[in-house]
Design brief:
By secondary structure, the chain is an all-alpha fold. It has helices spanning 2-24, 32-44, 50-73, 77-85, 87-103, 105-113, 119-128, 133-157, 162-201.
Length: 207
């Protein structure tokens, strides 16, 4: 599937890029980052225009975020379905919940590009949690701007080494997602221990 999508980029590049970023923001298994890298390489070769490529990638991502947020806001049915299945989707949803609870708007921003595997699920989670729409939109758009700039820019700058670059970035993103979860759990555990100690110090409690 990935090879087929990448083969379509030089022929239908702008449409493929926009659709890829849109549907990837709805948790569909679309290799949008790799497609943007490839599109950046075609920009470097003169086959695609930089402004149109980056603009449509950004527009597709923002619209995808909005769709995911609305899905979450309309009762979170899809979110509950994913959670009930268990496995990787349920794990990512749980991570997104922790990130949203801990960081709010900045969590939305970083989930767009720094820990992008959580991005689609942050859309659902923040919609279901009724985060302020304008706050979500501003943080999300800022993050998508970084995501598009980084991947299209890297594809442009390293056009001859796309496969190696994609592998490095994929491993880096996964490691950051795991690190974010570990940090969140550590902070939660520290807060829980602190709360228990405070209760134990209250007058009248057995020690």
């Amino acid at each position: 599937m990935i090879e087929t999508l990448l083969a379509l980029v030089p022929h239908y590049g702008l449409y493929i890029v926009a659709l890829a970023t849109f549907f990837s923001c709805l948790a569909l298994p679309i290799p949008s980052s790799l497609i943007m890298l490839t599109a950046g390489a075609f920009v470097a070769a003169g086959d695609l225009a930089m402004t149109a490529t980056a603009g449509l990638a950004f527009g597709g991502a923002v619209l995808g975020d909005q769709a995911g947020f609305r899905i979450g806001a309309r009762g979170g049915t899809l979110l509950q379905r994913f959670s009930g299945r268990g496995g990787k989707s349920a794990e990512l949803i749980a991570r997104a919940h922790r990130l949203a609870d801990r960081w709010g708007g900045p969590g939305v921003f970083f989930s767009r590009w720094l820990i992008s595997p959580l991005g689609p699920y942050m859309n659902f989670v923040t919609g279901a949690a009724r985060m302020d729409w304008l706050r979500f939109t501003l943080w999300g758009a800022a993050g998508e701007a970084v995501w598009v700039t980084v991947y299209v820019g890297l594809g442009y700058g390293f056009a001859s080494r796309i496969e190696e670059l994609a592998s490095i970035l994929g491993n880096f993103s996964g490691a950051l997602a795991a690190g974010a979860v570990a940090l969140g759990l550590g902070l939660w555990l520290r807060a829980a221990l602190h709360a228990d100690r405070q209760k134990a110090r209250q007058p009248g409690r057995a020690r």
